[in-house]
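Quick start: read one record
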Amino acid sequence: MSYVVESGSSRRARRRRRTAITLIIVVAGLAFAFKLAASHYFDGATPATASGCPTSKTTTAAKAAPGAKPVAPKAPAAPALAPSQVTVNVYNATSRAGLAAETAKLVKARGYVVGTIANDPLSKSVAGPAEIRFGPNGAAAGALVQTLVAGSVPVTDARADASVDLVLGKTFAALTPAPKTPVTTPSPSC
């Protein structure tokens, strides 16, 4: 039996090669992970995905005629927003006692989910019949609630949720007559 005796310099050289190869593999793995995460972040988490809108960027070419322009696929109809999907906070910005509670009963009878019933937390003077307050995520819900009071004014704020505030003003008399068919508002278009 014979043994090969290795010098210290060849061992160090082999160890450096092994370290360099290991570092290259680790850096390549990290680069792949970052690329995958970035593509998932920028392509997979778009607002269209969150809202249920199609995210396909492809087009289908018309095969009947050569040279025909590509035809974009048709998006499915946007789902309608039902009153049962909208949370409405009813606030009284007048000096009439019990106005918010009375109106909240009527709003609930129309199928809306009623949240808070109180005096206006902003203590704002609303000169018209009503003010509809909502955030960016509640635009469709705000448009639906606006149909409850003729002459109401929409006001956007910075809230993160989709709730809507119905703030009753000085000239508020009653809700608009209930529609014969259920009122729905389409979701934001894609």
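Strands lie at 60-61, 70-71, 80-81, 87-92, 113-119, 130-134, 153-156, 164-168, 185-186.
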